[in-house]
Amino acid sequence: MSAAVRRRRVRLAALAAILVLTGPAAKAADLPAALADGGTGRVAEVIDGDTVHLADGRSIRLVGIQAPELNPGQADVPAQPHARQARRALVDLAAGARVHLGYGGRRRDRHGRYLAHLYLRDGTWLQGELVRRGAARVYSFADNTALVDRLLRLEQQARRADRGLWALDRYRVRSRAGTHEAVGSWQIVEARVRRAEVVDRRVYLNFGRDWRTDFTVTIPPEARAAFDAAGLTARRLEGRRIRVRGWIESYNGPQIEVSHPEQIEVIGK
């Protein structure tokens, strides 16, 4: 065998090895049409139930969900119930795995973290699987609502089955009366809109007899166009039973101000 032939065979063998190593292993999962391709990376560390660090140095916040806070690095702040279980769920799914990033809105938060949906090579959607297991709740922003409808359906299934955090009283869906004790926290509330009013272009959804003390949901003027386009007008919401999610603040009683339509689900007449 000539030296030239040997060299050619060595080069072909090396090329074949490269293809074996980078072919299936590097194959990225197909992304939904709603997402822009963000490339791939390998998970080097799972920080908590909704945050990972990649080997290339990027920090990824799994957008669209919120797992119970582990509060790492804050010795004086205890972990929230089910926080360690949520992190364990993400470790089991993604530790050391290659993931495909998909962007559905704003790409980075104020902490510099990338806001992405993550998919494993076999097509497993990490956000969807965590919500399905009851390891996280759906948590969206006005500038990042892609796939929220799918997450809400998975959340409902987990909630009905009392999976994961849904078995704990802390994360139960609140009634109108239960909002008073929950001021200052992020909650999901189900109640019937007793009356809907528009005052100075702001929509007020009142759930009790006394708007000064009862639970209220408000839609600010700058957000009304999006709600109207989604069919969530004051007139259509009055008398309907809804599920709303957000931070409960105290202003003439417990109040949630919503910024985008995905925060409200109409669940009954």
UniProtKB/TrEMBL annotation:
Q: Where is the TNase-like domain?
A: 37-168
Per its record, what are the GO molecular function terms? endonuclease activity; hydrolase activity
Which keywords, in A-to-Z order, does the entry hold? Endonuclease, Hydrolase, Nuclease, Signal
Q: Which InterPro entries match?
A: SNase_OB-fold_sf, Staphylococal_nuclease_OB-fold
Hydrolase as UniProt keyword: yes
Q: Where is the signal peptide?
A: 1-28
> What is the name of this protein?
Endonuclease YncB, thermonuclease family
- Organism whose genome encodes this protein: Limimonas halophila
